[in-house]
């Protein structure tokens, strides 16, 4: 009886937890399908009298939604690829070589994760202004890359430490250079970790708002989060358009997680074993 009661309570708790967590997503989706009059109706309608795709039609036809999507994809993918390429090399050095400043470098990486990012925004804005990179996609790619390299390096370092160094030593004995051994032997073994790091970097870049708002003013260069922010007006909020835009904006990340779910779970759990 006690065992059945315990299982029953767990099922009830998980069911309530699932409903609480899923309700905001349901509300966003159903709001995006409501006519304008039903969005502000009182009492609240948890299911509208009729469903409409007018909010989606408006946001696609009236706004430059396809441009915002293209900008977000270009910037997020570019920054994620650069982050992975640099982090793989830096994590390999930190995992395989012990040098005098090794502990200081790791401490510096950890400190960057403790400090809020907005602390450095003022000097970075001045730097970008002097480099004439304000209002360019390159500024966002550079900012996102710099911001994600420390964490990505820490994450990948755990994967390298799980792989015995004898593996690349054997490849080097067979004639490979160290770089060739890294690319041909080590990286295929830790593909899960590389994929998890790439996905983490992409999602962070895709959802980033604060830096993009500060560095981008041109309408044709805005990313999706910046465009979504424009629906919040001075005296009103276009909830229908914002909800429709939110649903469309999460579709790429949902597709990415659905395709690469195995890599994410295996990668993050394996990388956390040793760091």
From TrEMBL:
It holds the Pfam family BPD_transp_1. It is a multi-pass membrane protein. InterPro entries: BP-dep_ABC_trans_perm (IPR050901), MetI-like (IPR000515), MetI-like_sf (IPR035906). It is found in: Cell membrane. The chain crosses the membrane at residues 12-30, 73-95, 107-128, 140-160, 181-203, 239-260. Belongs to the binding-protein-dependent transport system permease family. MalFG subfamily. This is Carbohydrate ABC transporter permease. The lineage of its organism: Bacteria, Bacillati, Bacillota, Bacilli, Bacillales.
């Amino acid at each position: 009886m006690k065992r059945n009661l315990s299982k029953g309570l767990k099922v009830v708790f998980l069911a309530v937890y699932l409903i609480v967590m899923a309700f905001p997503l349901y509300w966003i989706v159903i709001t995006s399908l409501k006519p304008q009059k039903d969005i502000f109706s009182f009492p609240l309608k948890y299911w509208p009298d009729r469903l409409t795709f007018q909010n989606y039609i408006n946001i696609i036809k009236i706004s430059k939604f396809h441009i915002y999507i293209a900008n977000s994809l270009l910037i997020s993918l570019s920054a994620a690829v650069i982050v992975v390429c640099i982090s793989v090399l830096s994590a390999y050095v930190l995992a395989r070589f012990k040098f005098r400043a090794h502990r200081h470098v790791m401490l510096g990486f950890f400190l960057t994760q403790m400090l809020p990012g907005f602390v450095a925004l003022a000097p970075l804005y001045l730097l970008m202004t002097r480099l004439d990179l304000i209002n360019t996609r390159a500024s966002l790619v550079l900012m996102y890359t710099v911001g994600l390299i420390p964490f990505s390096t820490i994450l990948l370092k755990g994967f390298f430490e799980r792989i015995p160094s004898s593996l690349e030593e054997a490849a080097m004995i067979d004639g490979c250079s160290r770089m060739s051994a890294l690319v041909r032997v080590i990286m295929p073994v830790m593909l899960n970790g590389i994929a998890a790091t790439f996905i983490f970097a992409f999602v962070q870049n895709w959802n980033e708002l604060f830096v993009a708002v500060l560095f981008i003013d041109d309408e044709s260069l805005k990313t999706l989060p910046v465009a979504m922010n424009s629906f919040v007006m001075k005296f009103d909020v276009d909830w229908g358009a914002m909800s429709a835009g939110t649903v469309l904006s999460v579709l790429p990340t949902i597709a990415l997680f659905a395709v690469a779910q195995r890599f994410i779970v295996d990668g993050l759990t394996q990388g956390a074993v040793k760091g």
